Amino acid sequence: MDIKYYRKLKNVDRLGIEPKLREYNLLEHQYMVAMLFRHFAYKEDVPYDMQIFDLVLHHDIIETVTSDIPYPVKNFNRKTVECWSTIEQEIIQNHAQLIRYSDKNIEQAMTDKQFLLFKVCDLLDLWIFLKEEQKMGNNSSSCKKIIKTCVELIKGKFGTVDVYMKTYDYENF
C-alpha cells in the first residue's frame, strides 16, 4: 500500500455534514474500529487472522479518494447502494492498490460472524464518538438521531457489546 493513502486518512473528515464539537477523521475512526474489533472478537470468541485485521484496520481507505460519504446517503435506497458500488468500482480501476478494501471484497473475505462484528464495531465507534459529543454539549437533533440509529442497528447482535453500551462511562473520556 502506498503511504500516501495512510497520510490522507487524517485529512478525511467523518460526519462532515453533521454539527460536531471535535474533529473526527478516518485515521482515528479506522484505528478505533480495529481496536474495538480486536477487543470484542476476544470476548465473543470470534477468531481472525492478520489479513482480516488488516481489512478492518483499512476498511474506509477508499474514502481517501471519495471523501466520507455518509451512511444515509450511501444507503438512502437500493439505487444509491448500487451507485456507491459503481463509484467504488470506478475508483478502484484508477487506484488498484485499494481493490482489497472494497466493501464487496471485505464482506467476501470474512465469515458471517466476523463481518457482523466488524459492522457492529464500525457503528460502535460512531456511537461512542457521539455519546462523548453529547457529554460535551452537542445536543443537536442529528446527533441524537444517529445515536438512536446506532443503538437500533447494534442492539442484540453481541452480548458483550450490549453490556458495554449499557455500562459505558463517557465521564472518563
Tags for this entry?
173 residues; mainly alpha; Hypothetical protein af1432
Give the secondary structure arrangement, pairings included.
Layout: H1 3-9, H2 26-44, H3 50-57, H4 63-66, H5 71-74, H6 78-94, H7 103-109, H8 112-135, H9 141-154, H10 159-167
Protein model, in words:
This protein is mainly alpha-helical and 173 residues long. The chain has a single domain (3-172), classed as Hypothetical protein af1432 (Orthogonal Bundle), CATH 1.10.3210. It is built from ten helices and no strands. The protein has helices at 3-9, 26-44, 50-57, 63-66, 71-74, 78-94, 103-109, 112-135, 141-154, 159-167. Helix 2 packs antiparallel against helix 3. The longest helix has 24 residues, at 112-135. It starts with a helix and ends in a 6-residue tail after the last helix. The model has no long low-confidence stretch (mean pLDDT 90).
